[in-house]
Design brief:
Butyryl-CoA Dehydrogenase, subunit A, domain 3; about 45% helix; 11 helices; Butyryl-CoA Dehydrogenase, subunit A, domain 2; two-stranded antiparallel sheet; 3 domains; eight-stranded mixed sheet; Butyryl-Coa Dehydrogenase, subunit A, domain 1; alpha+beta
């Protein structure tokens, strides 16, 4: 379902801090259209009906389950929000994809799986792919038939992405690039079908490639044992003389950093929207329990300290929700530009602590025996790792 596209010029970085906007220029969730609300309702119902009943199995990494749920989500149009309609996607605008992301983020494991697939695993092809690459990959990624992943980090190169040691060399026939190296902490690594992989051609020119799981020399490693987000797959990727067709080079030789950093900027904003969705669920669960639990003859929600904690959670969530949707209104749906980078980064800077704070306060309201309902959400929020590893 296509929605209205952005017509207002995008904000230039942090310029909104110095300008005096008109009330009509500030978008809030109260301004969502009926179509956008329906998108959110569909996403939320899917998670509650199709994902929530299997949280225990997902946390225990039941083989094939998460991949099956992604494909189910694709069947109802939840995996192709950022893919243009001409390539089988929904062609949603930025506000609509933000609503979709927020509502899918009730369970952290599914949220990061969706983000790694529909976001950083698919958008590189949307923004930088050739017409042939888009026709080949986007229709299957949009429906969930194929699942995407993003491979940037290496054992010695995390934030310092251009310190990559993965090499790519064109074979003598000039038909394939031969990739050798290792990637680490790859979300969806265990079951993805299409991987965006970064390597240096001849050890110098940092470049992006589209690599399929079935290519010779490509091998995912074992699942990582993480402190949180247990439901998602996180593995290393090994490239041993991996043959990648020359036509699978993404964008331009030596311009891989343009692909990598622009996609990560988009991912930071998406992760911020995910934090809003997770925080709202934590607040709802905590508030419900505070009304059910009684002590000293009354609901614990009637005690001043409990009211304060719930109120602080609500205030922080309202603030970051406002930031997210105002930024969504001012952000173009096309490939992100340096002008929007400051706003995107600031979103993640504020939303991640909000979710962590909400999770911490919920632990003080809900006793151990009743924490199962929010266990996955709080563990994901408090884990001292990247929420979407790449």
């Amino acid at each position: 379902m296509a929605t209205a596209t952005l017509t207002k010029p995008a904000a230039k970085g942090g310029s909104f801090l110095l300008e005096s906007p008109q009330p009509s220029d500030v978008f809030t969730p109260a301004d969502l259209t009926d179509d956008q609300k329906l998108i959110g309702q569909t996403a939320e119902e899917f998670v509650l009906k199709e994902v929530f009943p299997f949280i225990k199995d997902l946390e225990n990494k039941k083989a094939g389950l998460m991949a099956t749920l992604v494909k189910k989500g694709g069947e109802v149009g939840l995996m192709g929000g950022g893919v243009p309609e001409e390539f089988g996607g929904a062609g949603l605008d930025k506000i609509s994809t933000t609503v979709l992301t927020e509502k899918l983020s009730i369970y952290g494991g599914f949220a990061v799986t969706h983000g790694a697939h529909a976001g950083i695993g698919t958008l590189p092809i949307v923004y930088f792919g050739t017409e042939a690459q888009k026709k080949k990959y986007l229709p299957k990624l949009a429906t969930g038939e194929w699942i995407g992943a993003y491979c940037l980090s290496e054992p010695q190169a995390g934030s310092d992405a251009q310190n990559s040691l993965t090499r790519a060399e064109l074979n003598k026939e000039g038909t394939h690039y031969i990739l050798n190296g290792q990637k680490m902490w790859i979300t969806n690594g265990g079951f993805a079908d299409v991987y965006i992989v970064f390597a240096k051609i001849d050890g110098e020119k940092f470049t992006a490639f589209i690599v399929e799981r079935t290519f010779p020399g490509f091998k995912p490693g074992n699942e990582e044992h993480k402190m949180g987000i247990h439901g998602s797959s996180t593995t290393p990727i090994f490239l041993e003389n991996c043959k990648v067709p020359k036509e699978n080079l993404l964008h331009e030789i030596g311009r891989g950093h343009i692909v990598a950093f622009n996609i990560l900027n988009a991912g930071r904003f998406t992760l911020g929207a995910s934090c809003v969705g997770g925080s709202k669920h934590v607040l709802m669960t905590s508030s419900k329990y505070a009304k059910e639990r009684k002590a000293f003859g009354k609901q614990i929600g009637d005690f001043g300290l409990m009211k304060e904690k719930l109120a602080e959670m609500a205030i922080q969530i309202f603030a970051v929700e406002s930031m997210v949707y105002r930024s969504a209104r001012n952000t173009p749906s096309r490939a992100p530009s340096p002008r929007s980078t400051a706003a995107r980064c600031s979103i993640l800077w504020w939303t991640k602590p909000c979710r962590s704070s909400a999770a911490t306060d919920s632990m003080r309201i809900i006793p151990y025996a009743a924490r199962i309902a929010i266990r996955a959400s709080t563990a994901s929020s408090r884990a001292p790792t990247k929420s979407i590893a790449c």
